Amino acid sequence: MKVKMLSRNPDNYVRETKLDLQRVPRNYDPTLHPFEVPREYVRALNATKLERVFAKPFLASLDGHRDGVNCLAKHPKSLATVLSGACDGEVRIWNLTKRKCNRTIQAHEGFVRGICTRFCGTSFFTVGDDKTVKQWKMDGPSYGEEEEPLHTILGKTVYTGIDHHWKEAVFVTCGQQVDIWDEQRTSPVCSMTWGFDSISSVKFNPIETFLLGSCASDRNIVLYDMRQSTPLKKVILEMRTNTICWNPMEAFIFTAANEDYNLYTFDMRALDTPVMVHMDHVSAVLDVDYSPTGKEFVSASFDKSIRIFPVDKSRSREVYHTKRMQHVICVKWTSDSKYIMCGSDEMNIRLWKANASEKLGVLTSREKAAKDYNQKLKEKFQHHPHIKRIARHRHLPKSIYSQIQEQRIMKEARRRKEVNRLKHSKPGSVSIVSEKKKHIVAVVK
Amino acid sequence: METAPKPGRDVPPKKDRLQTKKKKPRERRNLEPQRSVSGAQDPFPGPAPVPVEEAGKFRRIDKSKKLPHSKSKTRSRLEVAEAEEEEISIKAARSELLLAEEPGFLEGENGENTAKIRQADIVEAVDIASAAKHFDLNLRQFGPYRLNYSPTGRHLAFGGRRGHVATLDWVTKRLMCEINVMEAVRDIRFLHSEALLAVAQNRWLHIYDNQGIELHCIRRCDRVTRLEFLPFHFLLATASETGFLTYLDVSVGKIVAALNARAGRLDIMTKNPYNAVIHLGHSNGTVSLWSPAMKEPLAKILCHRGGVRAVAVDSTGTYMATSGLDHQLKIFDLRGTFQPLSARTLPQGAGHLAFSQRGLLAAGMGDVVNIWAGQGKASPPSLEQPYLTHRLSGHVHGLHFCPFEDVLGVGHNGGITSMLVPGAAEPNFDGLESNPYRSQKQRQEWEVKALLEKVPAELICLDPRALAEVDVISLEQEKKERIERLGYDPEAKAPFQPKPKQKGRSSTASLVKRKRKVMDEEHRDKVRQSLEQQPQKQEKKAKPLRARPSALDRFVC
């Protein structure tokens, strides 16, 4: 007879010395790992609960301004530097790692309406209510020098916004019309306008760098071409847009922060329908900024909260609020896509984590593996009702919560009336307009 | 302010169309045969051969199930997931090369019947370490014994009818504890590890430490005849003489469910390791399947003409072996149809049944133990010829295969016998699940992790993968509710709008003609479909018109 018994040599399974690692042989046969799906479900539930336990996004509050913070700007080369302009004309440069103010400049008399940095990072521009555009050095005055702008341009009308080109020595200001300036000249290279009202903000496209978009008070968003010095097309919405922001990863996508509590993501090539309507705020949306990954953006609103939206979803994934934070005027997402800074009415700039339960700093390889596994588990089981309930749960301040309930009732009433109109009229006489198209009034080329 | 990265040389320029990006599964590029510096060519060109049969066991997506009609985005994501699973199953099958151990085997030479081979012969022919695994404990004083191996297979606990309880590490023969509980012991089970022991005594259920210290006396579980432990749910199932099946959660110490089986005294119980369902055998020949979530049995299977005497389920949950008072031993298919696959008449009814990890079936009939084997791991044991037999010194009272060793433990009137059964056990264990060579630290870590991922008792059902399936009922319910809410169906096909064309092809008449063409095409499709459905309806109507069934119908071939 031929016989062989299963006989293991313990030397192959037990470690030799106390200083060795333990040996863990693996066999991935599914029959040795029963209940895969329920065990992973329980792990996903635990991961979701722990995510809520560790969700502590608030990092720091930068104190110093003596009036509401009106605008923020990022330094293109240094992650730790941020510039802010306040409503009393003061510009401050902060160091985020030390959470201190490096430099204070009394830049303008009146509001600092806009601030932008040059692409090389050596200087920055500010515009204010005193009809001037000033260029300052980033470094700060050396010993014996006075704090003075490199360059001052006096204009005839109030400028309300400024943005610098991403590659060339060109910047654009907006006020009564959109002016494109060369840094060496004191008068604009060209002025463009379409419409009769003042323009509140202007932004250059970071990828197709000759394109710019502007928002005007007559409820339209106009796109311009710098090479031909003409406006390209415009889209008219139901209410005024406060700002727009271009997606840093997709050349033709931009998001507009509108007064009707929504944000609209447009594809520049087809302006008649927005790609997505983002509805979650309960008051006017004042500012929007994209993450450097191009997958998410953050919006600041007059209801005292900031929300983070994914680009392809219409609901926010996160809301940040504090009792001390009043109306949020401006918001920026840092260039390493990890932090969010917001400047608000009560003179403070707050620093938040973009992922609320993320552990900061360098992670060991085991921590990274566990984090990736938990992320994938949460994603796999996100639609199960218990897990969805826990992942979605956020505490909201009473004002926002009651506003949400009220607006839901109003929307429901409107919808019911529309459905009734549809049901009780001759088929074909009442056209069904999709939710996305409802907010667009016209597109003009 | 960095610009977007410029595309490389091989990337085609971006198309200026509004296209949703489709993620295609990665294609394998066929490389030309590699040439080395010496000029020698690879004797086995191309990628390594794909082990198709082994890759099959790593696939989890059931491709035969039809999903409800979904959007193109969902469908494309499903395609990507299926392609990924294909790749991964091939890689996992290739990694089987790294498994160190081979299963045991016993083959007779020159047409020798393996059933005639005695244990003594096997012990002589095998190496010393394996020979030491065969031992006999002569314990005649304290009554017939029942035994249980711990989940890793390293420790053994046995209890005699007259109260003798002992736990030992049977490989090193180191005794951990030996006590007499001064009461009849009806069944004994290890809990999740070798540290805790549950003993069903005459009156109540007791929990002991492996040092023999009594930890708990659970008075709610009285007159328990059988115990089963569900390791991933931390549930101890007890079947009692009063007819109640009680589930006790040993991690929090609560009774999760006490189900009245309504079938009198419960004597025969076994668990299905694949889906944690408890099988109870009854005296009317039925086996009922129970889950703590439901008050009624999940299923009832009629197995035997007389009472059922023993039930066993294999480790993959595919086959159930039952033996009854009608001297039959039957194997049923549990996944799919609950039909008998094979049956065999035994001269003496089998009072105890046990399956091994690799699908060997052991039956204890009187003082003889018979073991049947199948072709491979996936096939049921063939009941024609037994693989091994052994005669013991007393009547069999308990059978349990040791988890990762080729050993069958038998508890009988005269004590405990450890039999050698080559090829019974899974040779390669997974170190993170149950590791017989684990240290104290590893056991503690494993215990914490197992407690954290303890599956709630409500999730026990016949299909353990139910959570990963699409909930078709809720999906369709949601669709209906959305249509009601919006007043129209957002996913209904929009009526065809002919695109305006150039060069005079866009006059009113031609637009109407194009619309008509599309409408006629759709009408034709509908008519075709309804014609296909009609003969099916006619068949259904034709059935009740046949003559009444008579007793002679069974003679019609």
TrEMBL record, chain A:
<protein>
    <recommendedName>
        <fullName>DDB1- and CUL4-associated factor 13</fullName>
    </recommendedName>
</protein>
<keyword id="KW-0833">Ubl conjugation pathway</keyword>
<dbReference type="Pfam" id="PF00400">
    <property type="entry name" value="WD40"/>
</dbReference>
<dbReference type="GO" id="GO:0000462">
    <property type="term" value="P:maturation of SSU-rRNA from tricistronic rRNA transcript (SSU-rRNA, 5.8S rRNA, LSU-rRNA)"/>
</dbReference>
<dbReference type="GO" id="GO:0032040">
    <property type="term" value="C:small-subunit processome"/>
</dbReference>
<dbReference type="GO" id="GO:0046697">
    <property type="term" value="P:decidualization"/>
</dbReference>
<comment type="function">
    <text>Part of the small subunit (SSU) processome, first precursor of the small eukaryotic ribosomal subunit. During the assembly of the SSU processome in the nucleolus, many ribosome biogenesis factors, an RNA chaperone and ribosomal proteins associate with the nascent pre-rRNA and work in concert to generate RNA folding, modifications, rearrangements and cleavage as well as targeted degradation of pre-ribosomal RNA by the RNA exosome. Participates in the 18S rRNA processing in growing oocytes, being essential for oocyte nonsurrounded nucleolus (NSN) to surrounded nucleolus (SN) transition.</text>
</comment>
<feature type="repeat" description="WD">
    <location>
        <begin position="62"/>
        <end position="104"/>
    </location>
</feature>
<keyword id="KW-0687">Ribonucleoprotein</keyword>
<keyword id="KW-0690">Ribosome biogenesis</keyword>
<keyword id="KW-0677">Repeat</keyword>
<dbReference type="InterPro" id="IPR019775">
    <property type="entry name" value="WD40_repeat_CS"/>
</dbReference>
<dbReference type="GO" id="GO:0016567">
    <property type="term" value="P:protein ubiquitination"/>
</dbReference>
<feature type="repeat" description="WD">
    <location>
        <begin position="321"/>
        <end position="362"/>
    </location>
</feature>
<feature type="repeat" description="WD">
    <location>
        <begin position="278"/>
        <end position="319"/>
    </location>
</feature>
<dbReference type="GO" id="GO:1990756">
    <property type="term" value="F:ubiquitin-like ligase-substrate adaptor activity"/>
</dbReference>
<dbReference type="GO" id="GO:0080008">
    <property type="term" value="C:Cul4-RING E3 ubiquitin ligase complex"/>
</dbReference>
<keyword id="KW-0853">WD repeat</keyword>
<comment type="similarity">
    <text>Belongs to the WD repeat DCAF13/WDSOF1 family.</text>
</comment>
<dbReference type="InterPro" id="IPR007287">
    <property type="entry name" value="Sof1"/>
</dbReference>
<dbReference type="InterPro" id="IPR036322">
    <property type="entry name" value="WD40_repeat_dom_sf"/>
</dbReference>
<dbReference type="Pfam" id="PF04158">
    <property type="entry name" value="Sof1"/>
</dbReference>
TrEMBL record, chain B:
<dbReference type="GO" id="GO:0000462">
    <property type="term" value="P:maturation of SSU-rRNA from tricistronic rRNA transcript (SSU-rRNA, 5.8S rRNA, LSU-rRNA)"/>
</dbReference>
<dbReference type="GO" id="GO:0030686">
    <property type="term" value="C:90S preribosome"/>
</dbReference>
<comment type="subunit">
    <text>Part of the small subunit (SSU) processome, composed of more than 70 proteins and the RNA chaperone small nucleolar RNA (snoRNA) U3. Interacts with DDX21, NCL, NOP2 and EBNA1BP2.</text>
</comment>
<dbReference type="InterPro" id="IPR015943">
    <property type="entry name" value="WD40/YVTN_repeat-like_dom_sf"/>
</dbReference>
<feature type="compositionally biased region" description="Basic and acidic residues">
    <location>
        <begin position="7"/>
        <end position="19"/>
    </location>
</feature>
<dbReference type="InterPro" id="IPR040315">
    <property type="entry name" value="WDR46/Utp7"/>
</dbReference>
<protein>
    <recommendedName>
        <fullName>WD repeat-containing protein 46</fullName>
    </recommendedName>
</protein>
<comment type="function">
    <text>Scaffold component of the nucleolar structure. Required for localization of DDX21 and NCL to the granular compartment of the nucleolus. Part of the small subunit (SSU) processome, first precursor of the small eukaryotic ribosomal subunit. During the assembly of the SSU processome in the nucleolus, many ribosome biogenesis factors, an RNA chaperone and ribosomal proteins associate with the nascent pre-rRNA and work in concert to generate RNA folding, modifications, rearrangements and cleavage as well as targeted degradation of pre-ribosomal RNA by the RNA exosome.</text>
</comment>
<dbReference type="Pfam" id="PF00400">
    <property type="entry name" value="WD40"/>
</dbReference>
<feature type="region of interest" description="Disordered">
    <location>
        <begin position="1"/>
        <end position="79"/>
    </location>
</feature>
<feature type="compositionally biased region" description="Basic residues">
    <location>
        <begin position="66"/>
        <end position="75"/>
    </location>
</feature>
<feature type="domain" description="BING4 C-terminal">
    <location>
        <begin position="386"/>
        <end position="464"/>
    </location>
</feature>
<dbReference type="InterPro" id="IPR012952">
    <property type="entry name" value="BING4_C_dom"/>
</dbReference>
<feature type="region of interest" description="Disordered">
    <location>
        <begin position="484"/>
        <end position="557"/>
    </location>
</feature>
<feature type="repeat" description="WD">
    <location>
        <begin position="301"/>
        <end position="335"/>
    </location>
</feature>
<dbReference type="GO" id="GO:0032040">
    <property type="term" value="C:small-subunit processome"/>
</dbReference>
<keyword id="KW-0539">Nucleus</keyword>
<dbReference type="InterPro" id="IPR001680">
    <property type="entry name" value="WD40_rpt"/>
</dbReference>
<keyword id="KW-0853">WD repeat</keyword>
<dbReference type="Pfam" id="PF08149">
    <property type="entry name" value="BING4CT"/>
</dbReference>
<feature type="compositionally biased region" description="Basic and acidic residues">
    <location>
        <begin position="518"/>
        <end position="529"/>
    </location>
</feature>
<feature type="compositionally biased region" description="Basic and acidic residues">
    <location>
        <begin position="54"/>
        <end position="65"/>
    </location>
</feature>
